[in-house]
């Protein structure tokens, strides 16, 4: 029988190991002496000790579920013998919060300085819609602007982004769904990656333009125009008026040029809970290193996807800056438990079929790997979906695990850079905010290299340290924020990924 060393135990207390390559039945691991009883796919779990039915299965030294049947040494551990029961955690709020300290290394990026003190990493014009009914007209205006060559004389503008969605009407005007959409649209209107915003409504919708504007100055630079199709006189007149307004805003936005800015102005949204068995071993902890580096420089990183920290929330509450911050996080977890129950679901509906093919079994396992993105910095505060983030450091923003929706919330909250880890492959982008795609494994990176920006599979295949890979990701923060194009930008993604979180009844 062939002696191999192709499985990795992540913690001394673990009773499973992770396959580092496809392993055939009958092969023996050189390090542990474990004989593999079934063929095991890369990223999947193997029992390295006998696990009786009902006993906890441990990965990262943490419980990822319970054995639903007796599991023998060398047996494949997955959906056929691993399940999840009710879990309880000792939250120990704020008990392990340790400030990282401030670095003396001064780093800058070249960004667009805005009148409100924020700094953009891109300089787009946005056509923002209040309701689904104005979506087509917004696209017509963007298409007309492109055909006319409107931006040819404005070289400092990155493009025109129509931001359309499927809601804004058929909803109550006085509930959390309305409030969530209001925060989302307001956040995009104020985003530093926009040099100007054209806001378009139909006129009769629940999400009224007048309420969004509300007599307040949404943008300190005054670069916001708004109209409704009904009041302007229909489709053709709105397109004509929209083009006039775009030209006026373009002249203003074009005066902005990239200038040095402290990287404390970077706000990075960290995305994807985990998509394969490598996520919590490579890309996510490497991103955690990069997150800590940015926090030391005074920047901000955002963890989200509340349904994908479930089972690992105790790791975050222990790092909360205060008991109050920890309790805010648990308040969101309890909301989600109620939300899923009301909709006849359960928190373990996640992982997805693709996640499971990649080796993830329960939400507890996925969440433990997901939390690795957050590094070791204290949790400074907890925010609602799309709520303006006003504190530096590592923060949490409540959102679903559905990636386009979660990223939409992070951008609305102020993220001017997105980092997306993936083990299955991702084809998406999030204009106006550039998205850095980070691969968890080398096989997928090689297969989808045109869509991926950074490979973290070499942490396993070539022994690259997490620290070195985290520094590589951090340097990518600076270069991309300064104007270097991501793969998704090169491919033109970002026009259909604006997905506000629809909560509540459609009426």
What does this structure look like?
The structure is a single chain. The protein is an alpha/beta fold and 507 residues long. It has 3 domains: 1-87, Archaeosine Trna-guanine Transglycosylase, Chain: A, domain 4; 116-253, 3-Layer(aba) Sandwich (Rossmann fold), CATH 3.40.50; 266-491. It has 15 helices and 23 strands. It has helices spanning 135-148, 176-189, 209-213, 229-232, 235-253, 283-296, 313-317, 323-342, 353-357, 363-371, 403-413, 442-447, 458-461, 466-481, 487-491, and strands at 3-4, 7-8, 16-19, 28-29, 45-47, 56-59, 62-67, 76-77, 82-83, 108-113, 119-120, 124-129, 159-163, 194-201, 224-228, 259-262, 267-271, 300-303, 379-383, 393-397, 417-422, 435-439, 454-455. Strand 2 and strand 3 form a beta hairpin. The radius of gyration is 24 Å and the shape is globular. The relative contact order is 0.14.
Low-pLDDT runs: none
> How would you sum up the major sheet?
7 strands, parallel
How many domain modules? Answer: 3
User: Shape, please?
Assistant: globular
Q: Mean pLDDT, as a whole number?
A: 93
Q: Nearest-angstrom radius of gyration?
A: 24 Å
Structural class: alpha/beta
Helix content: 25-40%
Strand percentage lies at: 15-25%
The helix tally amounts to 15
Distance between the termini: 65 Å
Total strands: the figure is: 23
> What is the strand arrangement across the widest sheet?
19-20-18-17-21-22-23
